[in-house]
Design a protein that fits this description.
nine-stranded mixed sheet; about 550 residues; seven-stranded mixed sheet; globular
Length: about 550
């Protein structure tokens, strides 16, 4: 049970009535020394509206287009960054997003656009019907899940303008979802040319890792709970009412607003406010890990980056544990703003509620509310890497003796049957047998969990440097692709650089070359151009063959 105490005081020393009056007038007319005089979100949006109107031509805006604000970042010095989505003749534009950068006084400084191509179509009437697009998407879903008997297959086509894959064209964006034979959800997004029926792109739609309370992985941890009558609820009123519920080993099918069934999230309760037994025999043990992971992720983003919750709006998400039967996965779902964890099959994976998994999955939510990196090609690799990076940063931030910070992904959840000591290895991603250490022109053709290796490798080198070393009791040996030696700047600075790059400079189409530019801009903003941090960012990208 949490109690909030406020301590606030002030004093005014005077030497006569005239001095007192002058001091009071000064206090009334001037802002307090520690007052936050930065522009508000509303002011930033108002400034951006004026800037967008004045620079519409440079942003590719025409009378057929409309814009809407997705996110706002206001720096400590008052510099403003307002992120927009756009529509064309009332259709959403994939790749139409852009970020407007404004000086502290609201003056226009520039913009980053997902695409610089003109957006103009002769018609927004499709030649291919939505029903046919849905059929093609279902075929794509089945082809992506060979050998699986899919059931409850549903497809929802939506007409959009695709500006992300070359010249702007009318397209169907179709979310196809189903259940496999175990009742686990599968989903795939397919882009189809609305004139020719040709497939433009396709990607998996469930972003996953294949993965005081007594937790499974993090020891005994503090929990903020809610007292309701005489019963404690695993709901945290200090972090947006985030809570954890029991999915009762059921599954759901509710992705991108298509809901056929949903597993429950029955709120965990307790009589004495001591949760879990540190073993799977107590169902609340996994709930402790999930809630703890949510707490640490919330605190990391708030205390390190000033972000209040996953969406930046102070609202909490929720967790479901014990999802499905032997489910070897965990996933974030934007449609419910929730995290879901499987119990694993016991031989390959244990319950997937480890701290870095929680940070990874909830960071998908942060990405979706900011850069919205497309989940395919190099952008998809950066999307996955962003979650690996911040999952790692959350683990370092938590500083938990039972799960100390490292550059391994999912090391707590793997079991002997998996055959490797972790899911992924940031010092040398190819240790997993699939991930790329170095960029090449073919990286974008890999599964996004493997193309992410380039950015993961960059972050390790930027944090710790190249060569063999032991960090926090874990041995690493990180090579460089160009044979150069890199000296790291520490993971704290790296997390700040990546967060600023993600929230201020990256867009939905950012690729590895764009990520280099975005992180250099972020390093310049935070630490100055030409300094150690800026130069090391450049060196670390070169060390993984980017730039």
């Amino acid at each position: 049970m949490s109690r909030i105490r406020h301590i606030r005081g002030s004093s005014l020393a005077t030497a006569g009535a005239a001095v007192a009056t002058a001091a009071l007038l000064t206090a009334a007319l001037a802002p307090a020394a520690n007052a936050d005089t930065r522009p508000t979100r509303a002011t930033a949006i108002e400034n951006a509206v004026s800037a967008v109107a004045a620079h519409a031509a440079n942003l590719g805006l025409t009378s057929a287009q409309r814009t809407s604000v997705r996110d706002v970042v206001v720096d400590k010095d008052g510099t403003q960054h307002v992120r927009y989505d756009r529509t064309y003749r009332e259709l959403p534009v994939l790749g139409g997003d852009f970020v407007v950068h404004l000086a502290p006084d609201g003056a226009y400084r520039g913009a980053d656009r997902a695409t610089g191509k003109a957006i103009s179509l002769t018609s927004v009437t499709p030649e291919l019907s939505g029903a046919k697009a849905a059929g093609l998407a279902v075929n794509a879903l089945r082809a992506a899940n060979p050998g699986k008997a899919l059931k409850r297959v549903t497809a929802k086509p939506r007409l959009i303008v695709d500006a992300l894959h070359g010249a702007a064209r009318l397209a169907w964006r179709t979310e196809a979802v189903a259940e496999d034979s175990l009742g686990n959800p599968v989903a795939r997004t397919t882009l189809t040319d609305a004139r020719t029926g040709a497939r433009i792109d396709a990607w998996d739609s469930v972003e996953t890792v294949t993965g005081d309370g007594n937790s499974l992985y993090s020891g005994t941890v503090p929990l903020e709970t809610t007292l309701s009558g005489s019963t404690y609820q695993l709901k945290d009123p200090t972090r947006g009412n985030t809570y954890t519920g029991d999915a009762a080993n059921k599954t759901d099918l509710c992705i991108f607003g298509i809901c056929i069934s949903r597993a429950p999230a029955t709120l965990f309760t307790d009589a004495d406010n001591h949760w879990g037994a540190g073993a799977t025999s107590d169902r609340s043990s996994a709930a402790v890990d999930a809630q703890y992971g949510t707490n640490e992720t919330w605190d990391y983003y708030k205390n390190v980056h000033g972000r209040n919750g996953i969406a930046g709006d102070g609202k909490g998400s929720y967790n479901r544990v014990h999802y499905g039967s032997n489910y070897n996965n965990a996933f974030w779902d934007d449609s419910c703003f929730c995290m879901t964890y499987g119990d694993g099959d016991g031989s390959t994976f244990g319950p997937l509620v480890a701290l870095d998994v929680a940070g990874h999955e909830m960071s998908h939510g942060v990405t979706s509310k900011t850069a919205a990196l497309t989940y395919s090609g190099e952008s998809g690799g950066l999307n996955e890497a962003t979650s690996d990076i911040f999952g790692t940063m959350v683990e370092w931030y938590a500083n938990n003796a039972s799960d100390p910070g490292d550059y391994l992904i999912g090391e707590k959840i793997v079991r002997p049957g998996f055959g490797k000591p972790a899911l992924r290895f940031m010092d040398k991603p190819s240790r997993d047998g699939n991930s790329a250490d170095c960029w090449s022109s073919s990286v974008g053709n890999l599964d996004v969990h493997y193309s992410s290796g380039v950015a993961n490798h960059f972050v390790y080198l930027l944090s710790e440097g190249s060569g063999a070393k032991t960090v926090n009791g874990v041995a690493y040996d990180s090579p460089t692709c160009n044979g150069a030696t890199v000296t790291g700047i520490g993971h704290d600075k790296v997390g700040k650089i990546w967060y600023r790059a993600l929230t201020v400079y990256m867009t939905s189409s950012t690729n590895y070359a764009g990520a280099r530019t975005a992180t250099l801009n972020a390093a310049k903003d935070l630490y100055g151009a030409g300094g150690t941090e800026y130069n090391t960012v450049a060196a670390a990208w070169s060390a993984v063959s980017v730039g």
